[in-house]
Amino acid sequence: MVARQEDLGPQLSSRLTYLLKRALLDLEDLHRDHLASTGINVRELTVLQFLDGREPESQQQVASHLGVDRTTMVGLIDALERLGLVERRADASDRRRNVVQLTEAGRRTLAEATRASDEAERRLLGALDQADATRLRELLQRLASSPR
């Protein structure tokens, strides 16, 4: 059960930590529901989106770019490979290194899952008008790209 804002009190209901966490939990629930028919979860979708349209990179490079530890990335790539959505292959320029790339099935699943993800985001942002939703994304992008 989600607490109502008035039940939380002003000290908690205005805290950025609480607000961002609440939005994230809601978005995760929406993604779980909307992605169910695609057979992948939002973390796997993130990997597919990252790989799309890029030169193949190693698992380690993908993990580094996405801020995921190597062990977790191995699990994500293993799961996507079992589903036939990505493949590991030897790097043409360095046979000692394996790279990861999308398969045709991965591209199809990516398209379907991206539509489902878009709908999940629309549902989350439904209380905002288009200008506010755009502004929220811009502000979050600025926060995410700012040096710490």
Question: What secondary-structure arrangement, pairings included, does this model have?
Answer:
Elements: H1 5-8, H2 10-13, H3 16-35, H4 42-51, H5 59-66, H6 70-82, E1 86-91, E2 94-102, H7 104-124, H8 130-145
Antiparallel strand pairs: 1-2
Helix pairs in contact: 3-7, 4-7, 5-6
Structure description:
The chain has 148 residues and is mainly α. It has a single domain (11-145), classed as Orthogonal Bundle (Arc Repressor Mutant, subunit A). It contains 8 helices and 2 strands. It has helices at residues 5-8, 10-13, 16-35, 42-51, 59-66, 70-82, 104-124, 130-145; strands at 86-91, 94-102. Strands 1-2 form a two-stranded antiparallel sheet. Strand 1 (86-91) and strand 2 form a beta hairpin. Helix 3 crosses helix 7 (104-124) and helix 4 (42-51) crosses helix 7. The radius of gyration is 18 Å and the shape is elongated. It starts with a helix and ends with a helix. Keywords: DNA-binding, Transcription, Transcription regulation. Pfam families: MarR_2 (PF12802).
Helix/sheet category = mainly alpha
Number of strands: 2
Oligomer: single chain
Mind telling me which CATH architecture this is? Orthogonal Bundle
Average pLDDT metric: 92
What level of helicity do the residues show? 55-70%
Helix and strand sequence: HHHHHHEEHH
Instruction: Tell me the β content.
Output: 5-15%
For the biggest sheet, the summary is:
2 strands, antiparallel
State the domain count. 1
CATH class: Mainly Alpha
